[in-house]
Amino acid sequence: MTRALPKVLAFDVFGTVVDWRGSVARESISFLAAIGRADVDPAQFADVWRMQYLRTMQDYAVSGRAFVPLDVLHREMLEAALRGIDVDPAVLDQELLTDWNRAWHRLDPWPDAVAGLTRLKARFPIVTLSNGNVALMLAMARRGGLPWDAILGAEVTGFYKPDPRAYEATARILDVAPADLCLVAAHHSDLAAARACGLATAFVGRPLEYGGREAPDAAARQDWDWVAGDFGELAERLGC
């Protein structure tokens, strides 16, 4: 390793820190049963919901749409996913849909996440650099014991990743040069966008994020500044 250590670690959260697929699938079992669609594979439903998110984030900067919190977008995506299985969300109990949408507030950390973050926090400030809104991130942190120093992201910067302004504004908010801010993520496309803005990069592999399938952004892989199999290994590589 030749690059200087960063001053702050900023973490992508969905898929990097928490297991969105397993958690949303688990939550969706009872909700699908409640609407009479227990025949639908909950993991597949979670995948459909998430794929809409990835497309929306990629296109948001050029969509012309004013910023709205991720909870609003997740609800729109949930309704679209329901229409995809021939269920009209307008005829369903709206409180049930609201609770279902909050499944994203109740995502489980990966097994190494809490201990690894705690170890990294002993040497570095650790913050979120996520597209999640503050209420969502706070609920997730409280439920999972995630020891953030600060919760930042799209609602704070006003921009969704991979918009360059999301990364640049985070560095300004933290009063550090982009090169002194390291994005930790399990997603090559996120890291590539951060690197283009001058951030340091750390890749942590999460091979089960997509149920063992190849990640949709595998082609964006680069030679990242640090690479680790989990947060414990990353802590070792960063001298924690």
TrEMBL record:
<comment type="function">
    <text>Catalyzes the hydrolytic dehalogenation of small (S)-2-haloalkanoic acids to yield the corresponding (R)-2-hydroxyalkanoic acids.</text>
</comment>
<dbReference type="InterPro" id="IPR006328">
    <property type="entry name" value="2-HAD"/>
</dbReference>
<keyword id="KW-0378">Hydrolase</keyword>
<comment type="similarity">
    <text>Belongs to the HAD-like hydrolase superfamily. S-2-haloalkanoic acid dehalogenase family.</text>
</comment>
<dbReference type="Pfam" id="PF00702">
    <property type="entry name" value="Hydrolase"/>
</dbReference>
<dbReference type="GO" id="GO:0018784">
    <property type="term" value="F:(S)-2-haloacid dehalogenase activity"/>
</dbReference>
<dbReference type="InterPro" id="IPR023214">
    <property type="entry name" value="HAD_sf"/>
</dbReference>
<dbReference type="InterPro" id="IPR036412">
    <property type="entry name" value="HAD-like_sf"/>
</dbReference>
<protein>
    <recommendedName>
        <fullName>(S)-2-haloacid dehalogenase</fullName>
        <ecNumber>3.8.1.2</ecNumber>
    </recommendedName>
</protein>
<dbReference type="InterPro" id="IPR051540">
    <property type="entry name" value="S-2-haloacid_dehalogenase"/>
</dbReference>
<dbReference type="InterPro" id="IPR023198">
    <property type="entry name" value="PGP-like_dom2"/>
</dbReference>
<dbReference type="InterPro" id="IPR006439">
    <property type="entry name" value="HAD-SF_hydro_IA"/>
</dbReference>
